[in-house]
Amino acid sequence: RRLAAVPAADQAGLRFVLHPAVTLLSSPYPLAAIWRVNQPDFAGDQRIDWDTGGDRLCVRRDGHAVTFDVLAEPALRFLSALSCEAPFEAAADAALAVDADFDLQGFLLASVQSRVIADFR
Known about the structure:
Layout: E1 16-18, E2 22-27, H1 31-37, E3 55-62, E4 65-70, H2 73-83, H3 88-98, H4 104-113, E5 117-120
Antiparallel strand pairs: 1-5, 2-3, 3-4
Helix pairs in contact: 2-3
C-alpha cells in the first residue's frame, strides 16, 4: 500500500532496504553444492564438480533456519546496488546492463515477498 501511494515521478528515486538478516555472496567456488553435500541429511553423490564455476548467493534467515537462493548475475547486481543504498533506477540500470531481458518486475516482487527487501524510503 505504501508503495502504491508513491507518485510515479518519485519511484525512480526510491531506496529499497534489504532485510538486516540478508547477506549477498559471490564466490569463484560452487558454494551451493558444497553446502548441500555437507548437510546431515544429504544422501547423494558427495563429489563436487569444480568446473561448474562459482555461485552468487542471497543468504537469509527464515525464522530459525538459514536459506539461500542462487542468483543470476543481474539479480546480484540489482541487490548489491540496493545494499549500497543506490536508488531504484540505478539498481535497475545495473541489472539491465548485464541482461536487458532480466525480469526486474518479477524479481522485485519475489524479493519483497520473500522479505529479502524489507522496506523502502
